[in-house]
Amino acid sequence: MADSKPKSTKPANKTPPKSPSDPAKDRAAKRLSCDSNSSHEGAVAGDLSALEEAFRKFAIHGDTRATGKEMHGKNWSKLCKDCHVIDGKNVTVTDVDIVFSKIKGKSSRTITFDQFKEALQELSKKRFKDKSDEEAVQEIYKLIEGKAPVISGVTKAISSPTVSRLTDTSKFTGSHKERFDPSGKGKGRAGREDLVDASGYVSGYKHAGTYDHKVQGSKDRGETDWPLVSRILLLALHEDWSDIGYP
Questions:
Q1: What is the pTM of this model?
Q2: Among 68, 90, 137, 151, which one is least packed by beta carbons within 10 Å?
Q3: Whole-number Å distance between alpha carbons of 2 and 19
Q4: Can you give the three-state secondary structure of 130-175, one letter per residue?
């Protein structure tokens, strides 16, 4: 009789099966995570110093793709001009350009906020020579804190003889003169094409339309109508008075 050995049974898995995840709960968890991250970023943004805020405002000026974390040379020069870091005596435009080239990386065209502070430290020694290094840095910071780029106004039109000769219609000659009336308003088609004058008057005649007024005025004053008299005399020679209304 064969020996029968008891078969070993595997221990039952007591771990409960995972329930299917709820999509709504997952979305809520992600939203809470995003809210916490955004609130953290907002807190960091709120802790920005006035100097860094000014740096970011100038860094994004004129560039819609800028993030505000780096500043290129053009905006660096504008910052120094608008904030009066450049005084024309101790600090010039050349000094600003030299410091920017010195601070930025060899292959880089921009500077970070930390490099920006280094550049200001370099300029502060020249801008405030009579103060200590720490005081000079604080003074140059005060010039920049809370500032924003200055937007220049609309460019005014420059009046010059050359421009007025091109825009003043009273000075036009030839065919261009015929396209405008004395007030400077364009004549439209009449100024571009030669329209036929069917009035019956020759060109340049200044008394057009005055004949009827003269004839009517002479009748009112009792003056002799010589054209009618000459017609009567001509008909009298032929003894045909019926043509003029006489029996």
A1: 0.46
A2: 151
A3: 47
A4: CCCHHHHHHHHHHHHCCCCCCCCCCCCCCCCHHHHHHHCHHHCCHH
